[in-house]
């Protein structure tokens, strides 16, 4: 910039005021000369390069920004006001719609929920889950320090079965844990054999440690009663009890035996079928046992013998109860022809 001004200072203003012949220039001539000199001055400014990188273009932009600062502020303020208007407008619209329409819709929905819950409550009340019914637990001494335990239970629920883990309590002693099940509307005996207990004095009791209820799935069991009838057609015939005095099974040990025939009259092949055997002296149970028949095929008859190695006493009646958990899928033998088809 200093060079420009130095150059400007070197202009001979005296020569601008007079012509070459010594006569003074007119005002018009002086003005034209001044305009020409200013144009040259502007050209020199545009071609100027500052050593620190400042250019006339940058200075022009800065001056333009400063000159229009007020306009930028107005634009920013307007943009913020637009955002506020849109946000609050949406809020007022949504809130107003809820006040005039949404509250009524919420009340209607709440009423429908109450009605649905009432229907659900009535549905559950129409088929409540009832507790199992237990008789008194009993124990039978086999030998010193060993006992058999049993209890009669009933399931009053038509649409629920249960799987459970249980133990028997005798005095301050707890037996080992066992697992059991009970089908809808079933009455059965739960037994635990050969429990090692020093003294089972007093009244024993059953303790259910875990109970899992399951409702009958009508997608899987469309008609539970018919399904159960078809899958539980296991007949027991020719039941004969032989006391130790008349048994020839052993000359040194008193062995009582209960013999019977079991026939699988279902169309299904079972991996095993359990049989619970009870010996009665009048109305009192004096002997319990359990036997599992393996690979029981459809139409097959198996001759089964269950023994008691002790002197039981007089037996007036016997009972044999088949036991199959037909709610499980893994109880069937799957042959090439499908479930219930023999090779």
Total beta strands: 16
- What does the largest sheet look like? 4 strands, antiparallel
Contiguous uncertain segments of 5+ residues: 1-17
Please write the CATH class name of the largest domain. Answer: Mainly Beta
Helix/strand order, N-terminal first: HHHHHEEEEEEEEHEEEEEEEE
Number of domains: 3
Task: Give the helix/strand layout.
Elements: H1 2-9, H2 13-17, H3 27-46, H4 56-67, H5 69-126, E1 133-134, E2 138-143, E3 146-154, E4 160-170, E5 173-174, E6 178-182, E7 187-196, E8 205-215, H6 224-231, E9 234-242, E10 256-264, E11 270-281, E12 284-296, E13 301-308, E14 317-323, E15 334-335, E16 338-339
Antiparallel strand pairs: 1-3, 2-3, 3-7, 4-5, 4-6, 4-8, 9-10, 10-13, 11-12, 11-14, 15-16
Explain what you see:
The protein is of the alpha+beta class and 343 residues long. The protein is 32% helix and 34% strand. Strands 1, 2, 3 and 7 form a 4-stranded antiparallel β-sheet that branches. Strands 4, 5, 6 and 8 form a 4-stranded antiparallel β-sheet that branches. A hairpin with a 2-residue loop joins strand 15 and strand 16. The longest helix has 58 residues, at 69-126. The N and C termini lie far apart (113 Å). 15% of the residues are buried. The model is unreliable at 1-17 (pLDDT under 50). The chain crosses the membrane at residues 74-95. Keywords: Membrane, Transmembrane, Transmembrane helix.
């Amino acid at each position: 910039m200093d060079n420009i001004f130095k150059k400007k200072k070197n202009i001979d203003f005296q020569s601008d005021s007079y012509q070459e012949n010594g006569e003074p220039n007119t005002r018009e001539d002086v003005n034209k000369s001044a305009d020409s000199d200013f144009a040259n001055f502007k050209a020199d400014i545009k071609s100027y390069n500052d050593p620190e990188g400042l250019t006339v273009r940058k200075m022009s932009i800065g001056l333009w920004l400063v000159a229009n600062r007020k306009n930028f502020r107005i634009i920013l303020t307007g943009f913020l006001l637009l955002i506020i208007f849109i946000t609050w407008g949406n809020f007022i619209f949504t809130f107003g719609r809820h006040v005039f329409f949404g509250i009524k819709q919420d009340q209607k929905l709440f009423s429908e929920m109450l009605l649905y819950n009432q229907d659900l409550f009535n549905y559950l009340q129409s088929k409540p889950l009832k507790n199992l019914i237990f008789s008194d637990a009993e124990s039978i001494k086999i030998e010193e320090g060993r006992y058999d335990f049993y209890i009669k239970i009933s399931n009053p629920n038509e649409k629920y079965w249960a799987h459970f883990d249980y133990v028997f309590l005798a005095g301050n002693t707890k037996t080992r844990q066992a697992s059991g099940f009970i089908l809808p509307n079933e009455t059965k005996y739960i037994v635990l054999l050969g429990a090692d207990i020093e003294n089972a004095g007093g009244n024993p009791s059953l303790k259910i440690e875990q109970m899992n209820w399951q409702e009958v799935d009508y997608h899987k069991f469309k008609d539970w009663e018919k399904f159960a009838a078809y899958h539980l057609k296991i007949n027991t015939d020719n039941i004969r009890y032989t006391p130790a005095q008349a048994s020839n099974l052993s000359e040194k040990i008193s062995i009582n035996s209960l013999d019977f025939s079991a026939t699988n009259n279902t169309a299904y092949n079972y991996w095993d079928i359990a049989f619970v055997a009870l010996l009665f002296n009048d109305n009192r149970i004096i002997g319990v046992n359990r036997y599992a028949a393996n690979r029981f095929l459809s139409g097959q008859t198996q001759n089964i013998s269950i023994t008691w190695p002790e002197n039981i006493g007089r037996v007036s009646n016997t009972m044999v109860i088949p036991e199959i958990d037909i709610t499980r899928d893994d109880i069937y033998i799957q042959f090439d022809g499908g479930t219930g088809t023999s090779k």
